[in-house]
Design a protein that fits this description.
The chain is of the alpha/beta class. It is 45% helix and 12% strand. Helix 2 links the parallel strand 3 and strand 4.
């Protein structure tokens, strides 16, 4: 006997929500998924009318669904937001070049302009070249640091008010576990924040904070969205993967584990001693971009690569303090020129139409 939709619409249920256990038809699932994200946006007051918002777009399921949802909710609830896609090309042959083609199709499908910045332009290195020098053990450290700064630099070039990213509930729960395992208690509350901001930085928002990864996949599948599904070829040994495997095991025993972990991080009381270990945001004296240290991690890593010291900046900063100070004294940190790439528009507005910012 077919199971009927839990919302009592009379239709046959085609899925069971991982988040709530409700059996829903396709249309009721879409409504529940979209409405919950709208509720999260409204409750957290993520946006103000008329703001210019950059959507971090990689072509993967999370960012593709995020772009679709932001456009859908912006139109439906009249947020009056101006949207733009912002993509970072890390220079990973056979992975990022293919996924960026997906982003370009999303640009045309959703009618949202796109800006692409590359590691090659910003840092003079691609991830292919970095991996060739440092190997697969710590390559994610370089990519994560460079990517976060690249998003900030792209957002500043665009002049946006906020950046939205596709970090979902699973991602945030993994970060909580990783911070606990590293003993980084001071960052626990910050990593569960739906918005991270300071006077000197562009706010980053996570509309998918309470959205399960499984439901994002189901939404993309039933909506037939165009996304890139291949995993990064350099990430099999990433530390996050172990945290993810642990959470999946716990979830088999306790279905609410992901949300429980997030709520635990939110409620964690951090003492003054732990807070003191978490430096305040400032600006890097070398490049002028956001940093919690005198010299940002991106500048330290880049200096190491350029000087043949790829381990400089990997691990605890105190280990490399002397080498870093010597490079600074010798004036060998190196300055990076700002590269401003053009904004590309959907082909429906005129194929090949680009405009330099």
């Amino acid at each position: 006997m077919p199971v009927l939709c839990s919302s009592k619409c009379g239709k046959k249920a085609i899925l069971k929500r991982p988040k709530t256990g409700d059996a829903l038809c396709k249309e009721c699932f879409f409504w529940a998924f979209e409405t919950e994200i709208h509720f999260t946006i409204v409750q957290a007051k993520l946006f103000q009318e008329g703001e210019y918002v950059a959507i971090g777009a990689s072509g993967g399921k999370d960012s593709t669904v995020l772009a679709y949802i932001m456009k859908t909710l912006n139109d439906r609830y009249d947020y009056k937001l101006k949207l733009v896609l912002l993509s970072i090309d890390e220079g990973i042959t056979g992975y990022r070049d293919d996924s960026l083609e997906t982003v370009k199709r999303n640009r045309d499908q959703y009618g949202i302009p796109l800006k692409i910045l590359s590691y090659e332009d910003l840092y003079g290195w691609t991830m292919d070249k970095i991996v060739a020098q440092v190997g697969l053990k710590n390559n994610c450290t370089f990519c994560g640091v460079f990517r976060r700064q690249a998003l900030d630099r792209g957002a500043m070039q665009l002049g946006v008010n906020k950046i939205v990213t596709g970090h979902n509930a699973d991602d945030i729960a993994e970060t909580v576990i990783m911070n606990i395992l590293r003993g980084d208690i001071a960052r626990l509350q910050r990593c569960t924040a739906i918005t991270t901001a300071s006077d000197d930085m562009i706010s980053r928002c996570k509309p998918f904070k309470y959205t399960y990864e499984k439901e994002i996949v189901m939404y993309a599948y039933f909506k037939k969205l165009d996304y890139f599904s291949t995993e990064c070829i350099y990430s099999p040994n990433a530390y996050r993967g172990y945290a993810r495997a642990y959470i999946k095991d716990v979830e088999k025993i306790r279905a609410t584990a992901i949300i429980d972990i997030i709520h635990s991080g939110e409620q964690m009381m951090v003492g003054d001693k732990a807070k003191a270990k978490c430096p305040e945001q400032g600006t890097c004296k070398e490049c002028g971009y956001i940093s919690s240290q005198e010299v940002c991690k991106a500048c330290v890593l880049l200096a190491g690569l350029n000087k043949g010291l790829p381990q400089l900046g990997v691990g605890k900063s105190s280990k490399h303090k002397k080498t870093l100070e010597e490079l600074q004294l010798q004036g060998k940190m190196g300055k990076r020129e700002e590269v401003n790439t053009p904004l590309s528009y959907p082909v429906t507005q005129g194929e090949g139409n680009t405009e330099n910012l």
